[in-house]
UniProtKB/TrEMBL annotation:
Name of the protein in question: SnoaL-like domain protein
Domain of life, per lineage: Bacteria
InterPro entries according to UniProt: NTF2-like_dom_sf, SnoaL-like
Domain SnoaL-like: 28-114
Length: 129
């Protein structure tokens, strides 16, 4: 129970770092597997921390500047060697909803090793037009 409390607190801080585009402060494993699913221009599958950071900086936040994330619900299971986190979130710009999504992550010893993001493709595509 205490471990889940700690993970939730840390994960919320990481969502804030992402919103602030402090991408280098997010602990990502060198061999991370990142998938951003959907039928929209941002859909991708990447391997490696450098590739993920580059995509976030040069693609995601360039196409969606000023985006901030609001965590609506988070489920956590596992231990520090393999922690699984499911997060339901809203992405907003200037306080207005841009899209909602679900993110499934796995961390090991505090570093992101796997992430799958399922955004609302219709709302996201509309925001990109």
């Amino acid at each position: 129970m205490l471990y889940r409390w700690f993970v939730r607190k840390r994960a919320l801080a990481l969502w804030d770092r992402l919103s602030d585009q402090r991408i280098d402060e997010i602990p990502i494993a060198n061999d991370v597997h990142f998938v951003y699913l959907g039928d929209h221009p941002l859909a991708t599958e990447l391997h490696g921390a450098d590739e993920m950071r580059r995509w976030l900086r040069n693609v995601f936040f360039r196409r969606l500047p000023g985006l901030r994330f609001e965590v609506e619900e988070m489920l956590i299971e596992g231990g520090p060697w393999s922690t699984r986190i499911a997060t339901r979130y809203a992405a907003r710009r200037d306080g207005k909803l841009v899209y909602r999504g679900v993110q499934f992550t796995r961390t090991a010893w505090g570093k992101l090793v796997e992430e799958r993001v399922l955004p609302d493709a219709k709302a996201l595509s509309a925001a990109l037009d």
